[in-house]
Structure formats: structure tokens, C-alpha cells
Design a protein that fits this description.
single chain, mainly alpha, 25 helices, elongated
Length: 606
């Protein structure tokens, strides 16, 4: 029977099911953990060893180093951790990905997958029908776990058989006995294969099945696994393409770490493989190199038995099947040990070179200077949408930047009031204010679009509430920008009317600006710490709002007396009160943001 296109498509489908299972499992965990997972990731900023442990734990939980490194790139992109801290987490993620290899080694050949997958799906469906959000998320996790092993089972079924389809691997077999060049070639094959399917775990599953059936030698299987360590870096690299410089540096650091690790391992490849063979034997799992020699020897000495072995016509009690089953376990443990020891040794060496990595990556990916007044989002981008629950943190950082930029407009508007009318400086400053307001409109739209795309992902109820709150916040911030531009429009009407302000008006307006700028500063500070909004900060903001309202009321009352006492003209008083009202509205928009923070984050108060 020849290997058909349909069989190949089925293999792709099996790999797809395997990857989809990991994706659903990861998303289920994110939704079940919510802020707890975000807080765990925040802990990685303490030191390189905390980052190492966190990277290991997260990757072990979500069963995908690609997913965890994409999350790390996202957090670097959001400014939640430095490049040096991200390197430690990425190193830990590389060790954590071996956890998947051990699951496959322990369960892939020992357990009849269908015996527990279908009952597990049955339990998961019941959980999905529950009303509680966390219970549904656990159900999604179990569904993903089941799909992962169903995919593994199907990969085993649809990987082409060399004996029946020798043409599939004929080219590689011609280069399998050249010594070091063969090792280099199979390392490259592992790299390319993992780049295509974007998962080192899926590559490991395929290699494990190929090696267990005696199609390739153990050392070449190790070379394939080694190459997959570089190939897996393609996912975060793709994710960082539309990110900022920090995100690109984090993904480049991941590539550099795995590439240099592969280089040292290739330099001592044969002794390193032999050490892992010895370790496998030392823990009582036999010699993983024996399977290939046993199967090839069987093919040359007993071809008929060999043919029966691979067409599944031998009875289960046959001695050869029992021997091969034992040696399959030996190979699976041997590859898992190789994968684990390589990453452990690599991390042990590289963890001390984190600072050097940062300098090299900063040299490879230099920063680009951008004009502050150009429209660029600093922390969020279209390409980093792999973890909807965690991407909310990026939006939080971007909203803080948005508020800071709009805060500068308040200073511009105050300066514009004191700038000589009809001068070149006045026109230039007014144009700059208009440009900032235009940027503000576009930033609001981009952040809102990003939040809406996050909302389309798999989110916990808490995540959905946070997104709704942030959409409200950016709307209020944009209104602050409109108020700032409103000052310019009031001044233009004043100029057209030929009205002049006296020193008393300027003094009172500046006093009003002091209150508004203090309120704005408080708001920006609380936006920068959304996770820990304090009661004290909330109270201070509400007190400042009352001061703004009281001062506005006193200025209104004094304005009537001042006009009656001929301190200034009636029309000057009109424009004066327009400016005061505009500033008071700015204070209202600020307190609306504070209200939203209180309603959404008050449970986190400290």
C-alpha cells in the first residue's frame, strides 16, 4: 500500500489536532487562573532564578514552550518585564518544555489512549455545561488535554511506514551513515520540521514514533530533537514582527539562547549522547540504541517475521512484540532524558551570561528613535494576540501612555493661554495642540480595536469586565483631549472679538490649572497601577474633584461682582467663564476615570 495524499493530509490533521489540543489546554488554564496567572508572571521580575523557575512552571502547565515564550514576548512588549528578566523566563521555558516529552514518554506507549481520552472528554463536556465560568475553563483544559493525546495517537497511525513507503525517506536514508555530516543534516531536518509545524513537542512526538519503530538510529533521533530546539523559536519571532523593539529583542534572545546551546552540544555530541544512553540504562530502562539494531537485524535475518511485525499480523503474545515493546520504552525514556539533560546543562551554563545576552541582542536589534509626536502605539500591536487573557496587561500599559500623552495637552493649553495672540508661536502651538488631539483620536480607536479583538478571544468573566472598564476609560481620556483643544477654540473666538484678559483673570485660570493638573497626575498614577488601586489614592482624587468644583463655584460668584465693579468687560468675563467651565469639565472626565477604576478594581484595594 502506497502512501497517498490523503494519508499525508490525515497526518497534517493529526498534527493539527495535537497543536489545537495544546492551544485549548493553554487557553483553559488562562481563563481558569485569570489574574492569578498574571500575578505569577509578575513574580518573574524579581531575579533571574525566580524567572527561571516561573518559566519552567508556566511551560509545564500549558504544555507549550512556544505559547509561554509568546506570552513572555507579549509582556516584554507591554513593558511588564525587562529584556534581562525575559531571558531567564525563556531559559526556564526551555526546561519546562521537557515536561511534555516526559508525559509522552510515560503515557504515549504505556496507556491505551482511547481508554481514557473518551471518558475524559465525557467529563469535560459535563463541566462545559456548568454555569460557573471557572468550571467551564477546567472543562476546556480537559478537552485540550484529550485532543493532545488523540493527536498523538493519530500521528502514530499516519506517519508513513518506511518498509511500505521507502520513497518517503529514501533521500535521508542515503545520508544516515556519514557520521558527523549525518548528525548535522538531521539537526537541520529537525529545525525545518519544527519551523513548519511550529511546535517542538509535536516534532518530539513524531521523532519518538519514528525511532521506536526502528526507522532511524537513536543518535540521529537525538539530532532531530536538538534541531527542534532552534525551530521552536520561529513562533515568538513571528509574534514579535509587529511588536516593538523590546519584543523583537526578546524573541531574538530566545533564538540566540537555543542556537548557542545547540552549537556546544554538537561540539560534544557523541559523548553527550553516550552519557544519556548510560543514564537511561542507569535508571533501569535498558539501552535505547538496541531497538534500531534489533529491528534492522530482524529485517536482514528474518524478513518474513519483520514484514509480519509491521503489518500488525503478529499475535500480541509473541515474544518479538514483547521485546520491541520494552525497547520502545527504552527509546522514549532515552529521548526524554536527552531533551532534559541538554536543556538543564544549557540553562546551567547560560543563566550566568544573561547580561552578556542582553548586550548582544541590543547590538543585533538596535533601538530606533521615534518622534514623540508621531502616531505610534508603544505597547500593543496586531501580531501579539496569542493569549487574549494576558494581552489585557498590554492594553493597560498603553492606556497609561495614552493618559500621559493627553496630560501633556493640558500643559500646552495653559501655555497657549499665555502666548501672544496672532503670533507665529501662538499658531505653532495651536497646530501642535490640534495634532495631539488628532493623535488622541487615533490612539483611542486603535486601543479600542485591540480591546475588542481581545474580547473575541477566550476570556474569563473578570477579563470581560476589565475590557469593558478600559473601553470606558479611553473614551473619558479622549474627552480630556477634546477639552484641551476646546481651550484653543475659545481663545480663537476671543481673538476674533478683540477681547483682552487682565492679570486677575490669568491668575485665576492658572490657579484652576494647578488643581486640574494635580487631578490628572493622580489619575495617571492610578492608571499605571491598575492592579493595586488604593483607597487612599481614590479618596485623594475625590477630594481634588471637590476642590475643583468649589473653586469653579467661587470664580463664578466672583465673576459677577468683578463685571459689576468694572474689573473687566462683560465679554471678557464670558470667555473667562468658558475657560473655567472647560477646565471643570476636564476634572469631571478625570473623576469618571477614577469612578471606573473604583468600580472595577476596588476589590484589589490595599
Amino acid at each position: 500500500m502506497q502512501y497517498s495524499i490523503l494519508d499525508f493530509l490525515c497526518l497534517l490533521g493529526a498534527v493539527g489536532l495535537f497543536l489545537y489540543g495544546m492551544k485549548v489546554m493553554s487557553e483553559g488554564l488562562q481563563k481558569a487562573a485569570g489574574d492569578r496567572l498574571r500575578n505569577i508572571l509578575s513574580a518573574m521580575t524579581r531575579n533571574r532564578f525566580a524567572g527561571l523557575i516561573t518559566g519552567f512552571l508556566i511551560t509545564a502547565l500549558i504544555q507549550s514552550s512556544s505559547a509561554s515564550t509568546v506570552m513572555v514576548v507579549s509582556f516584554v512588549n507591554a513593558g511588564l518585564m525587562s529584556l534581562g528578566q525575559s531571558m531567564a523566563v525563556i531559559m526556564g521555558a526551555n526546561v519546562g518544555t521537557t515536561f511534555t516529552a516526559w508525559i509522552i514518554a510515560l503515557f504515549g506507549f504505556k496507556v491505551n489512549i482511547s481508554a481514557f481520552v473518551l471518558p475524559l472528554i465525557g467529563i469535560a463536556v459535563i463541566l462545559l455545561l456548568m454555569s460557573k465560568s471557572k468550571t467551564k475553563s477546567i472543562g476546556e483544559f480537559l478537552i485540550g488535554f484529550s485532543f493532545l493525546f488523540m493527536g498523538l495517537d493519530m500521528i502514530s497511525s499516519y506517519v508513513p511506514n518506511l518498509q511500505e513507503n521507502p520513497e518517503m525517506f529514501a533521500v535521508l536514508r542515503n545520508y544516515a551513515s556519514m557520521g558527523i555530516p549525518s548528525i548535522l543534516l538531521f539537526t537541520l531536518v529537525g529545525l525545518v520540521l519544527t519551523m513548519v509545524i511550529q511546535s517542538s513537542a509535536a516534532t518530539f512526538a513524531i521523532v519518538l514514533i519514528m525511532c521506536s519503530k526502528g526507522w532511524i538510529t537513536f543518535d540521529l533521533a537525538c539530532a532531530l530533537v536538538l534541531g527542534s530546539n532552534i525551530g521552536t523559536t520561529i513562533t515568538p519571532i513571528l509574534a514579535s514582527l509587529s511588536g516593538n523593539v523590546a519584543a523583537k529583542r526578546a524573541s531574538m534572545g530566545h533564538l540566540l539562547f537555543n542556537f548557542l546551546g545547540t552549537i556546544w552540544c554538537l561540539c560534544c555530541f557523541i559523548p553527550f549522547v553516550n552519557m544519556n544512553v548510560w543514564l537511561t540504562e542507569a535508571i533501569g530502562q535498558g539501552n535505547p540504541e538496541e531497538l534500531y539494531h534489533f529491528v534492522t537485524g530482524l529485517e536482514s535475518t528474518q524478513p518474513e517475521l519483520y514484514n509480519h511485525l509491521f503489518d500488525n499480523s503478529l499475535p500480541e503474545s509473541h515474544d518479538v512484540l514483547r521485546q520491541i515493546g520494552y525497547m520502545q520504552m527504552s527509546v522514549s525514556f532515552g529521548l526524554s532524558i536527552f531533551h532534559t539533560t541538554f536543556n538543564l546543562v544549557n540553562v546551567t551554563i547560560m543563566i550566568w551570561l544573561t547580561s552578556l545576552y542582553v548586550k548582544i541582542v541590543e547590538w543585533i536589534v538596535p533601538a530606533k528613535k521615534r518622534d514623540d509626536e508621531e502616531f505610534t502605539l508603544k505597547f500593543i500591536s496586531g501580531g501579539l494576540m496569542n493569549a487574549a487573557e494576558l494581552n489585557i496587561a498590554q492594553a493597560e500599559k498603553e492606556i497609561t501612555v495614552y493618559a500621559e500623552r493627553v496630560g501633556r495637552m493640558i500643559n500646552m493649553a495653559q501655555t497657549l493661554i499665555h502666548t501672544k495672540e496672532k503670533s507665529e508661536e501662538f499658531n505653532s502651538l495651536l497646530s501642535r495642540l490640534e495634532k495631539y488631539e488628532d493623535i488622541s483620536d487615533r490612539m483611542e480607536l486603535e486601543i479600542a480595536h485591540y480591546l475588542n479583538r481581545c474580547a473575541e478571544g477566550r476570556l474569563s468573566n473578570e477579563g470581560k469586565l476589565r475590557i469593558a472598564a478600559m473601553l470606558n476609560i479611553i473614551s473619558e481620556i479622549e474627552s480630556i483631549a477634546d477639552s484641551c483643544l476646546g481651550v484653543g477654540k475659545i481663545l480663537l473666538r476671543k481673538i476674533q472679538s478683540g477681547v483682552e484678559f487682565n492679570e486677575e483673570i490669568y491668575k485665576n485660570i492658572d490657579a484652576m490649572y494647578v488643581y486640574v493638573k494635580e487631578a490628572m497626575s493622580m489619575m495617571v498614577g492610578q492608571l499605571g497601577n491598575m492592579e493595586n488601586v488604593s483607597n487612599k489614592a481614590l479618596i485623594e482624587s475625590y477630594n481634588k474633584e471637590r476642590e475643583i468644583n468649589n473653586f469653579r463655584n467661587s470664580l463664578r460668584s466672583a465673576n459677577v461682582e468683578n463685571i459689576n465693579n468694572k474689573h473687566y468687560e462683560y465679554q471678557a468675563g464670558i470667555y473667562y467663564m468658558d475657560l473655567v467651565s472647560d477646565l471643570e469639565k476636564t476634572g469631571d472626565y478625570i473623576i469618571n476615570v477614577i469612578d471606573t477604576l473604583r468600580d472595577t478594581f476596588s476589590k484589589k484595594t490595599v
